[in-house]
Design goal:
Radius of gyration: 48 Å
Structural class: alpha+beta
Order of helices and strands: EHEEEHHHHHHEEEEEEEHHHHHH
Oligomer: single chain
Helix content: 55-70%
Strand content: 5-15%
Largest sheet: 8 strands, antiparallel
Distance between the termini: 30 Å
Length: about 575
């Protein structure tokens, strides 16, 4: 660095030198460097895309990053024990889907961006917050199952920024209902796919990946400097969404600082040099450090991938293809199992139905047998009564004959005898009529008994038919029931092998292009869904609780401004002197 305590970085940047790797690490050694600690963390995580990350610590309310080539104890770290370093993403990709290769890299970015959105360090509109929450739920819980994910299963989850919750007159149940509605549409997405969709939406937010610093221009006006993957941006302190002016990395010739003064020299010499002052020298060092790293990655993206990156991408494609094949195999097995279970349930239902029919037939048969027994018993009683009446009639006839034979010759006795004879004749007549009636009733009961026995015979025949059907159905259910040797899902498969040839790579490239077209269609559908949700919850919004960022976001949306076209506007304008 030049004398006078200033440091300067000229573009394009020099090639990064990779320090050697250490086999062992002595944590108590005074020669321990930042690179040693960083490599230890990366090896522990299995992380190879190390250029995005760093170890962060805080000194005097200012954020600082551990330098790789400097001893840890030589840094201005806090003296208290234990010393705390945060492993965080230091630089952000322009396109997460294309640049983040390893699944662990995607997962770490997902966790960090999600926390920044929930902590409101990144502004996110309400409708996008609901969509992002649905992808976060998909990543954690897997596919939606109404039997498992019942009402209230998200009650303990932190999914939305408090600003969004307070902005609307909506209960937690109403928010959960809207999140679950979108969550159900993500069925079939694995955890890494859901996390990547989360990042693809989050990377279009205005404050994504931007590091803000308080600065003052020559006139003493307070401004904000934003450093991100695309360049440097100047903001009003009250508006962190839309920059007043932007300096893309490919239009900057030189960045330098001297003490607290920072200088940005555009590539076009007709444009004035922009100078500003920061609050501390340490802040200028941090700004320059972020500029160097972001510019290095900016230039790297526009060159051919290194051999290491090519190898990682090839391995990632193979791993993606393997997982896709495993998921397809698992889906087929799951479908077969569900079909077999449905068939089994249908057979069990049919068997239960036949059992119920057999039980009803048995009950009907038992009722018929009981009716026949009652009729037979009643017929027997009637027949006995008829015999008894016939016997009484015979006795009455004998008594009449005896009375006639022993009649008294006297007139009075004759009259009495005649009266008795008349009464006996009338009684005999009644007895005969009653006997005839009882005989007819016995015949009728015998006829009813025959009909009951015929009904019993038909019930037995129907029971025999149902029993034969049940045995036939049981034989079918035993042959079509869920097989015990159904193929089970096994992650460790010795039969899976991959030989990626040129034809496979061409086919994979065509699939990738097809996925891009499908992604554009899904993006259009997604935007329509976001607009529908925004319209739906607009009536519940509390206008008085809107923050300044909410108002600015609504104004940008009404003008059609987005993160990317805002940055491109200064390039389309004429090269005029900068006045801020």
């Amino acid at each position: 660095p030049p004398r006078g305590g200033s440091k300067e970085f000229l573009f394009p940047a020099a090639n990064r030198q990779e320090p050697k790797h250490f086999r062992s690490l002595n944590l108590s050694s005074v020669k321990w460097k930042g690179k040693d600690l960083f490599d230890l963390v990366c090896r522990t995580l299995g992380l190879r895309e190390t250029w995005f990350f760093g170890l962060q610590y805080t000194i005097k309310d200012t954020v600082a990053w551990l330098k790789m080539d400097k001893k840890v104890l030589d840094h201005d770290v806090p003296t208290e024990e234990p010393k705390t370093f945060h492993f965080l993403a230091k630089f952000y990709p322009e396109n997460a889907e294309e640049e983040l290769v390893q699944e662990i890299t995607q997962h770490l970015f997902f966790l960090q961006v999600k926390k920044q959105i929930l902590d409101e360090k990144i502004f996110c509109p309400p409708e996008a917050s609901v969509l992002l929450a649905s992808y976060a739920v998909q990543a954690k819980y897997g596919d939606y199952d109404p039997n498992v994910h019942k009402r209230g299963f998200l009650a303990q989850e932190e999914l939305l920024p408090k600003r969004v919750i307070n902005l609307y007159q909506m209960t937690p149940e109403m928010w959960e209902e809207r999140i679950t509605a979108w969550y159900a549409e993500h069925r079939g997405r694995a955890r890494d796919e859901a996390e990547m969709e989360y990042l693809k939406i989050a990377q279009d937010l205005e404050m994504y990946g931007v590091n803000y610093f308080a600065i003052r221009n020559k006139k003493g006006t307070e401004l904000l400097l934003g450093v991100d993957a695309l360049g440097l941006h100047i903001y009003d302190p009250d508006n962190r969404l839309t920059p007043k002016i932007s300096f893309p990395w490919n239009e900057i010739r030189n960045i330098s600082y001297s003490d607290k003064e920072f200088t940005i020299k555009p590539l076009d010499k007709k444009i004035d040099v922009f100078k500003f002052n920061s609050s501390k020298l340490r802040v200028n060092k941090l700004i320059l450090q972020l500029c160097i790293g972001n510019h290095d990655l900016f230039m790297r993206r526009r060159k051919a991938d290194s051999l290491e990156v090519q190898q990682m991408k090839a391995q990632a494609r193979e791993e993606k293809a393997r997982k896709q094949m495993e998921r397809q195999c698992l889906a087929r097995e799951k479908q077969m199992r569900e079909e077999a279970e449905r068939t089994r349930d249908e057979l069990e239902r049919r068997l239960m139905q036949l059992k119920e029919e057999a039980t009803m037939a048995n009950e009907a048969l038992m009722r018929s047998e009981e009716t026949a027994d009652l009729l037979a018993e009643k017929a027997q009683i009637t027949e006995e009564e008829a015999k008894l009446l016939a016997q009484k009639a015979a006795e009455a006839e004998q008594e009449m004959q005896r009375i006639k034979a022993t009649a008294i010759r006297t007139e009075e006795e004759k009259r009495l005898m005649e009266q008795k004879v008349l009464e006996a004749e009338m009684l005999a007549l009644k007895m005969a009529e009653e006997s005839e009636r009882r005989a007819k009733e016995a015949d009728q009961l015998k006829q009813d008994l025959q009909e009951a026995r015929e009904s019993e015979r038909r019930a037995k025949q129907k029971l025999l038919e149902i029993t034969s059907k049940s045995s036939y159905t049981s034989m079918n259910s035993s042959t079509t029931a869920l097989p015990t040797d159904l193929p089970s899902y096994n992650l460790i498969s010795e039969s899976l092998s991959f030989d990626f040839k040129d034809t496979d790579m061409k086919r994979l490239s065509m699939e990738i292009e097809k996925e891009k077209v499908e992604y554009m269609e899904r993006s259009k559908h997604l935007q329509e869904q976001l607009n529908e949700l925004k319209t739906e919850i607009e009536a519940l919004k509390l206008k008085e609780r809107e923050t300044a960022l909410d108002i600015l976001h609504n104004e940008n949306s009404s003008r059609g401004n987005s993160k990317h076209n805002t940055i491109k506007k200064p390039q389309a304008q004429g090269r005029r002197p900068i006045c801020i």
